[in-house]
Amino acid sequence: MHDLSRQLRRMLGGAIRLKVPDLQLEQIERDWRYPESHHLALANGIRLHYRDSHPRDRRRPVLILLHGMLVDSEVWSPLWSRLAEHYRLVAIDLPGHGLTMAPASFPATIEAQVSTLHAALGQLGIERCSLAGSSMGGLLAWSLALAAPERIERLILIGAAGWADERSETRRIERRMQLLGAAPLRPLLRYFDPAGIVTASLQESLAPHEPSAALIERHHQLARLPGHRDILLNLARHWRSRPLADPRKLQHLSLPVLIIAGDNDALIPLEHAHRFHRAMPNARLVVLAGSGHLPMLTMPDRVAAEIDDCLQRDR
């Protein structure tokens, strides 16, 4: 057992605690929910949390906001006041993240998440919308646009995942993720302390800026909600088999596409943004100097202005 614990510490990048209990949803919701929080009960046992700026307004253009791995809809907060005046913003917490509750058995494959998003849009009565996705949320956004092009008006990709990353460090991390999600380790890792992984992810995502103490504490607590660590391990297990971007498919997305990338992104190579730009015929690329992986947190005025310009063009 001690040898295995040492192995896990090396895989997770440092010392870890393996017996950290879940936190109670009721207390976390009191501390971290929003005035605009809502929930959907989906058929697959998911209690989906989403933020809706104008739930009763059927006339405003709808913009769906999808976050990435190990964060939640909080990453869109700086854009809320900048865009909600003109658009109906719907920011979704993906299964295993934020205040969305899902069965621990939720597979967390990209296909399962796209299916969940499709069901949520149907239940919300949203027939047409624009999609903005960050990181893994970007992967989900372009995947949903390919799966249901008739529903998507415009596509916004911010530091979007999707292309194979051949960097040796990335391949090493992906192998570790697959091992951590494997069945033999699950009993040990079911209650691992996610604080170290969450903190490191936020620091890397915001570099060269530093995450606030409040942002770190929020995500430390949310990661310990019941089922979240199981789903994170499921996501880790399936990540290497995720669908990759294919130019032959992306070329059929003729809708307006905005691609935003930071030139200091430590997680997604800038070349990947250029690949999306070359693959989609109606795409525009904006590279933000000095920005990292989550520019909506560090350059919200610029990001909001670019999104607004994309949504207003040719209307």
Question: Can you offer a commentary on this structure?
Answer:
This is Pimeloyl-ACP methyl ester carboxylesterase. GO terms for molecular function: catalytic activity. 43% of the residues lie in helices and 15% in strands. The chain has an eight-stranded mixed β-sheet with strand order 1-2-4-3-5-6-7-8, sandwiched between helices. It is globular, with a radius of gyration of 19 Å. It has 315 residues and is an alpha/beta fold.
Short description:
Residues 63-305 form the AB hydrolase-1 domain. It is built from 14 helices and eight strands. With 315 residues, the chain is of the alpha/beta class.
Instruction: Tell me which oligomeric state these chains represent.
Output: single chain
For the record, the CATH architecture stands as 3-Layer(aba) Sandwich
What is the C-alpha radius of gyration, as a whole number of Å?
Answer: 19 Å
Structural class: alpha/beta
Average residue-wise pLDDT = 91
- H-E order: HHEEEHEHEHEHHHHHHEHEHH
Total DSSP E strands? 8
Organism: Kushneria sinocarnis
Pfam families: Abhydrolase_6
GO molecular function: catalytic activity
Protein name: Pimeloyl-ACP methyl ester carboxylesterase
Please name the defining characteristics of this protein.
single chain; 315 residues; alpha/beta; Rossmann fold; eight-stranded mixed β-sheet; 14 helices; 8 strands; 43% helix; disordered N terminus; AB_hydrolase_1; catalytic activity; AB_hydrolase_sf
Could you outline the blueprint of secondary structure elements for this entry?
Blueprint: H1 2-12, H2 25-32, E1 37-41, E2 47-52, E3 62-66, H3 77-83, E4 88-92, H4 110-124, E5 129-134, H5 136-147, E6 152-158, H6 168-180, H7 186-189, H8 195-206, H9 213-222, H10 228-238, H11 247-250, E7 257-262, H12 270-279, E8 283-288, H13 295-298, H14 300-312
Parallel strand pairs: 3-4, 3-5, 5-6, 6-7, 7-8
Antiparallel strand pairs: 1-2, 2-4
Helix pairs in contact: 3-14, 4-5, 6-10, 8-9
